[in-house]
Design a protein that fits this description.
Blueprint (H helix, E strand, L loop, with lengths): L2 H38 L13 H20 L3
Helix pairs in contact: 1-2
Protein name: Group-specific protein
Keywords: Membrane, Transmembrane, Transmembrane helix
Length: 76
C-alpha cells in the first residue's frame, strides 16, 4: 500500500466515523426532544434535532472532496 492509498483509506475511515457519530447524536437529541415535549412541555419540535446533523454532513462532504483532490493531484 503506497502513501496515497494510505491517506485515502484514513480519510474514508474518518468519514465513516463521522457518519456513525452523526446518527448517534441526532438520535439521542431526537429522543431527548421528543420526551421533553411530551413530559416537560418544551415548545420546539423534535425535528429540530436534525439541525445537529449539519456539521457532520459538512465534514463528510469535506472528506469526499479531499479524497477527490488527492486522487487528482497524486496520480501514480
Amino acid at each position: 500500500m503506497n502513501n496515497k492509498q494510505r491517506i485515502i483509506k484514513t480519510i474514508r475511515i474518518i468519514a465513516y466515523l463521522f457518519s456513525y457519530m452523526m446518527v448517534t447524536v441526532v438520535s439521542f437529541n431526537y429522543g431527548y426532544m421528543f420526551y421533553a415535549i411530551k413530559f416537560d412541555g418544551a415548545s420546539a419540535s423534535a425535528n429540530i434535532s436534525f439541525i445537529f446533523a449539519l456539521p457532520f454532513i459538512i465534514a463528510i462532504l469535506l472528506c469526499v472532496i479531499l479524497i477527490k483532490i488527492i486522487n487528482k493531484k497524486m496520480k501514480d
